[in-house]
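User: Run a structure prediction on this.
Assistant: Running it now.
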Amino acid sequence: MTNYTADASVVSEIETLRIALPTWIVSTVELVELAENAERAAKGVNPETADRSRKLIVEVAEWQQKLSGWQELKLSPRLLAELRILKATLDASMDEANGAAARLKLFD
């Protein structure tokens, strides 16, 4: 049987991601909705919301990098499958958040 010693350290950290992911998804959906509403109303976003949105994008990007790094480790097939699924979810969320941020000009 293959020994996947790296699994333990990744699993302990990935629990944080599992807990945070639903909140990030909801925040991303809210950001997209906010961008669409701001476009329709031709209004800007308040600074607190813009800051929250920037922090969301940075935090998700950091986790994307962690997941990419973990995928390079010798992990169990089960854990690698979970990492691919989580990474795909974060990638989709990031695409949506970046699109909304561009419409809101959060990084100009």
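Residues 35 and 41 are 10 Å apart (CA to CA).
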